[in-house]
Design brief:
The chain is of the alpha/beta class. It has two domains: 2-104 and 228-248, Udp-n-acetylmuramoylalanyl-d-glutamate--2,6- Diaminopimelate Ligase, Chain: A, domain 1 (3-Layer(aba) Sandwich); 105-226, NIF3 (NGG1p interacting factor 3)-like (Udp-n-acetylmuramoylalanyl-d-glutamate--2,6- Diaminopimelate Ligase, Chain: A, domain 1, 3-Layer(aba) Sandwich). The chain has helices spanning 4-14, 49-57, 82-93, 101-106, 111-116, 150-161, 186-189, 205-213, 231-241, and strands spanning 2-3, 27-30, 37-38, 40-44, 62-65, 96-99, 123-126, 129-131, 134-139, 141-148, 167-169, 175-184, 197-202, 217-220, 245-248.
Amino acid sequence: MISIDEVASALESVAPLHLAQGWDNVGMLVDGPPDHAVARALVCIDLTPAVFAEALAEDVQLIVAYHPIVFGGWQRLRRDDPQQATVLQAVRRGIAIYSPHTALDAARGGMSDWLLDAVGPTTDRAPLEPALHDPTVGAGRVGTCAPTSLDALLPRIKAHLGLQHVRVAEGTGPIQRIAVCPGAGGSLFEGLTGVDLLLTGEMKHHDVLACAAAGTHVVLTDHTNTERGFLPAYARRLSDAVPVDFLASSVDRDPLAVR
């Protein structure tokens, strides 16, 4: 077992917290007990009651939840609120909680790069919104692939994300320049030009209409389907960085299902 401070340093080396968006809540959200040591950790997208039960069953000392469970200026902690109750249980059980969120999106080799990998090899990769002190990384990604069609790309995207279905607004013409954003890419895509395909989890209806009318193809997967597939690679990378057994959650699920 190693100290929680050493684990936190390793987590930040993979996704430096200064890369996070200013509105975000990243880093160590719930401390463990004094002299907290970690041997096993669970990685998830959303820290739901089911995921917390899994963490207890796996006897972990740390949960790395991509989406911050503490968010929005809580003024109290109550047992009748599922998220707040989970935090109270974590404190009671001595389990720390860490969130990388938009820092992991922006980091080199992080979630945005993984999402762009869905379309295959690309060149000229760049962030859509470069970080202030490091313009080679930042929010979202844009890259260039060999000229192709939407029909050719869709099977690749589905296979990479582990999905059987995606939602598509078809534009016009071949695809070469592609922009991606994990989660919800609407605001990040505003004013973007010279792009043939947008890939993200969700966008506003009228933004999709405007893109399709301008000839830009849009592929939407629902929010967390652009994120969850990265967890196994993230867990392996963390396990390589520090002597802790990082496990990708097996019960973490998108709250929406296609039926």
